[in-house]
Amino acid sequence: MLTSKDSLNSSYLSPVFPVLPVCSSSVCVCSVTSSDLQLQRLHKDHSSENGKDTLCSVSECVQRQYHFINVNKTWTEAQRYCRENYTDLATVDNMNDMNELKKNVNDGCVWIGLQKTGVDRWQWSSGDPALYLNWDPTQPDNGDEMCALLKDGQWHDFPCSDSFTFICNSSNNGAPVGTVSECQEKLKTYKHKINIKMINWRDAQSHCRQNHTDLVSVRNQNENQQLQKFIDDSHISDNVWIGLFRDSWQWSDQSNSSFRYWNTGEPNNNGGNENCTAIEQNAQGQWLDISCNNQFPFVCHEDKLILIKEKLTWSEALRYCRQNHVDLVSVHSEEIQREVMNVVKRASTEEVWLGLHNCCSLNMWIWLSGEIVCYQNWAPGNGTTPEDCRLEKRKGAVQSGGDQRWISLPETHKLNFICSRYEE
Ligand SMILES: [Ca+2]
Ligand SMILES: [Ca+2]
């Protein structure tokens, strides 16, 4: 794995790489041929007229392809139609998805795939999975307290309508751009923005989404300590909203997107049976809960990642994806990793091949899409130490269970794999 400039300074590299490869402007790939991996160098020009980098900063990429179906159906009929003809009724992961989805729909109400389950679940506003929880020992202690705040390093559930200061996460979710070491530095830095205005949780969420990225997520003990230190250093009040909330809504495709875009006053369960979600184009696409028996047009989505539950070697998997779809998936950002996590949990093998290969001569991990591994999600002990690749070539796979990190395996292992339909 490329960890620093030093790892590229080996003398045999100099003739091949006169300059240090960077994440976006000059990309080195190992091209895959039928017989072997051969090193070659590609130049990709990502500059635009204004000189800004135009590499798809992934939060701006279309995550899914949306299809508006202008036929009135009940929510359940619409779900059936989408599952037969596409992937499912539309899931929305973030504001970019929402803007994409809104583009082509009619005025009036339009079904999306969010349905009430009746069972509450704690979730991060940013969509990060809520695997790490750090409740105060007495918390959570109240069924009506649906939002969480940080107090003395521990979490408390509170009524979402109460007013507190809050912390936004302003780190850019897109693929970091710059040299590898800059990228790694960026990934380590969590830029918090504190807001001393005291407002309710929902307003704090809107404020963060409009001005920064989202309300802050706390994904492990280290982040919790960093955040508490940040609060202590800022000398603000004890109670600070974080991005944790719970609700009982679930997407039709079972994905764990916690993005919500309710209109003011919604969901209100008017009449007691509003168990489905529609967007209202004349309310800027904001959502309302409404009875599932209404007949509306609807939006389906088509996933761009497909889990193939065959057991193949890495090379066989690559051939399959290139013949039937586009390629083995390249996970060059946290956004794509989240999509991978959604599909990989249905796998029948413990690991699942990704389009990640080790350039033996460079001792460097590279995506099939041609990018150096900048965003990283390796399991401990994988990817970061030099591989002994002289005897067998190593490829990257993602764990289908646990925290779904990447591991390095000999390419002859037979695993499920994920094909991508993204045209790079
Ligand atoms: Ca409480
Ligand atoms: Ca309603």
UniProtKB/TrEMBL annotation:
It comes from the Eukaryota. Coiled coil: none annotated. Keywords: Disulfide bond, Receptor. Residues 66-169, 187-301, 309-420 form the C-type lectin domain. PANTHER family: C-TYPE LECTIN DOMAIN FAMILY 20 MEMBER A-RELATED (PTHR45784), C-TYPE LECTIN DOMAIN FAMILY 4 MEMBER K-LIKE-RELATED (PTHR45784:SF3). This is C-type mannose receptor 2.
